[in-house]
Design brief:
Blueprint: H1 2-17, H2 31-34, E1 49-56, E2 59-69, E3 74-77, H3 79-82, E4 92-96, E5 109-111, E6 117-119, E7 122-131, E8 145-149, E9 177-184, E10 187-198, H4 200-206, E11 217-222, E12 233-240, E13 243-259, E14 262-269, H5 271-279, H6 282-288, H7 314-318, E15 332-337, E16 351-356, E17 359-362, E18 376-381, E19 394-395, E20 401-402, E21 406-415, E22 429-433, E23 462-467, E24 476-483, H8 485-491, E25 501-506, E26 517-524, E27 527-543, E28 546-553, H9 558-563
Antiparallel strand pairs: 1-2, 1-4, 2-3, 3-8, 4-7, 5-6, 7-8, 9-10, 9-12, 10-11, 11-14, 12-13, 13-14, 15-16, 15-18, 16-17, 17-22, 18-21, 19-20, 21-22, 23-24, 23-26, 24-25, 25-28, 26-27, 27-28
Length: 579
């Protein structure tokens, strides 16, 4: 019991010293690498990841399990990964500072043909294995274990701990995109990727499971279907002064489920025991180092007919096809002009976003340029195919049709009083329609930003932009990974118009008309409820076969918008009660 007490005290000290990425002592982050398309890491990237080995005969064999460095003497992995040892710690070892699985501890340095070298991995023996006392072998719940090493880890560029504590705890893990890293079965090099977290209901459906995942686990849909080792770290990003500063641990990969062409990751949530550790439930920690689990309630998200704004469908969200279906992103508005005004615009066109039945939000430079003239004529809502006439009905072979677009003339254009046509600063306009739009499955307003998002950072997030591509006829969508303003200023200075600019990398190389709306996902009770408006596309740049876009953050302009609109919809507490 005395040794266990020492272990708890050491872990407590570790948590106090390794929270929130203080002084970059944990969770080292290089923004340059955040949204690179490489699926393999650089040698010093994710330096907290290691591999668990098992002594078989005279040699150590790779178990196909990853470990995460927590502190100088401790690493974390899954309980299922350590059961093979049967408490025989002398048969367990971890290799840290490892980048390539073929590298061995007897190699001090490994160099390539160009003379570039990386240090070899360091193997550590295991002194003690502590499995979560509530780890359930049958359900897989609480699938966590801490390994205490016999020797202290010597910190280097290639061996660092991952932060345990977020600066701003998330209200929900669902409907978000996280980074993950570890080792995988198809490549010797340490890998990485992005994954989108799913609601429990949709996870059960997509994985064709007979029951939902265990209470303290959640599902995620990876961008790429690579099968990673158990123990891979799912990571959130700590943002300080609107700049990504460090990674922190969100969960451990517990299971990879493959159903035909679909791959789903099951992650063990680490938040419950982290929270109890901080709040001082030390008796539970002394008895087992982990806390009791936290239950979650499930709320059914609204269907299309019931939704008032920002309709979201998880299944559609995850399908990044060549086009968006007509009943996705129904708030998209196409602006039409008279007198050839569109020829003055970049790429001959502009888009906006429906925010109420009578109002559309769009960039001011779509209407007022250097000559001070505003020549927009009407707004088309429900446009799916820009090559079709507004009143055309497009039908499929099975007889199902896309509703024709609604073409509504403009009654008024309210341009932000501080708009500067030279710099595009404060480029925002509120359009009032001559009549109210008719709400249909293909026409619906976007929800406005919820009050809870008023001061939330937009850096290091993944949002969705939908619009009409310049070179393709059909409505399209793609993920956008946001980057910090200083990094955007350094790499793409021409995209910055003001401090209200949000920059991000698009996942797909489509260039959209300006004004395309950037939207986020509002989650209630761990279920995605609706999309809400984040910003409007101002400019884009294609560099090294990647599209970097800048958006106007709408939050600083909410008072201006409210003064010039009617019946805005803001979702505060999930779905409206059913009637």
């Amino acid at each position: 019991m005395r040794s266990l007490g020492k272990l708890v005290l050491l872990l407590l000290a570790t948590l106090l010293s390794a929270t929130a990425g203080e002084e970059q002592q944990c969770g080292n982050l290089d923004e340059r690498l955040l949204f690179s398309r490489d699926t393999s890491t650089e040698p010093a990237e994710y330096p907290w990841m290691g591999i668990l080995f098992h002594l078989r005969g005279a040699s150590f064999e790779n178990t196909g399990c990853s470990v995460v460095i927590l502190a100088e003497f401790h690493v974390l992995t899954t309980a299922s990964c350590v059961r093979r040892f049967n408490n025989r710690t002398e048969t367990a070892a971890v290799r840290l500072g490892i980048w390539n699985e073929t590298h061995t501890p007897d190699e001090e340095y490994i160099c390539n043909a160009k003379g570039f070298c990386v240090p070899g991995p360091v193997q550590h023996s295991v002194a003690e294995i502590k499995v979560h006392p509530q780890a359930d072998k049958d359900t897989g719940d609480n699938d966590l274990a801490i390994l205490r090493l016999t020797e202290r880890i010597k910190w280097t560029t290639y061996k660092r701990p991952l932060c345990l504590e977020p600066i701003s705890p998330l209200k929900s893990l669902i409907g978000r995109n996280f980074h993950f890293g570890g080792f995988e079965q198809s490549n010797f090099i340490k890998g990485k990727g992005l994954t989108y977290t799913l609601s429990r209901e949709y996870c059960t459906k997509i994985s064709e499971a007979s029951s939902a995942r265990p209470e303290n686990q959640f599902c995620a849909y990876p961008v790429k279907r690579t099968k990673f080792y158990e123990g891979a770290a799912l990571m959130g990003i700590n943002i300080v002064n609107e700049v990504p500063k460090s990674f922190y641990l969100v969960g451990l990969l517990s299971e990879v489920v493959v159903v035909r062409q679909t791959t789903v990751f099951g992650f063990q949530d680490v938040a419950p025991w982290r929270i109890d550790f901080q709040t001082g439930l030390q008796m539970q920690l002394l008895l087992g180092l982990f806390c009791v689990t936290l239950g979650t309630s499930l709320v059914n998200s609204e269907n299309l007919q019931e939704s008032k704004c920002g309709y979201i469908n998880e299944e559609q969200l995850l399908k990044q096809n060549e086009f968006a279906v007509p009943t996705e992103h129904q708030w998209l508005a196409r602006i039409t002009y008279e007198n050839g005004h569109e020829a003055k615009l970049p790429n001959d066109g502009c888009l906006g976003v429906l925010i109420s039945k009578r109002n559309v939000l769009a960039p001011a430079h779509c209407f007022v340029q250097y000559d001070g003239q505003a020549d927009a004529y009407s707004v088309q809502l429900g446009v799916w195919n820009k090559s079709s006439n507004a009143h055309e009905v497009s039908c499929d072979k099975d007889g199902y049709c896309v509703l024709p677009a609604q073409d509504i003339p403009l009654a008024e254009i309210a341009v932000h009083p501080e708009y500067d046509p030279l710099t595009l600063k404060h480029s925002l306009a509120v359009l009032t329609l001559q009549r109210a739009a008719k709400m249909t499955p293909t026409v619906m307003p976007i929800c406005m930003p919820p009050p809870s998002m008023a001061k939330e950072t937009l850096v290091g997030q993944m949002f969705v932009v939908a619009g009409l591509p310049i070179k393709d006829p059909l409505k399209h969508k793609t993920w956008v990974n946001t980057i910090s303003l200083p990094y955007c200023q350094k790499e793409y200075s021409s995209l910055i118009t003001s401090s209200t600019t949000v920059c991000g990398y698009q996942d797909r190389t489509k260039t959209y008309y300006q004004g395309a709306p950037l939207v986020g996902i509002q989650v209630e009770s761990n279920v995605p409820q609706n999309f809400y408006l984040v910003g409007l596309l101002i400019d884009s740049k294609n560099k090294n076969e990647r599209i970097v876009s800048s958006f106007l953050d709408v939050r600083p302009y909410l008072n201006f918008i409210k003064l010039n609109t009617e019946s805005l919809i803001v979702r505060n507490n999930g779905p409206q009660p059913r009637k």
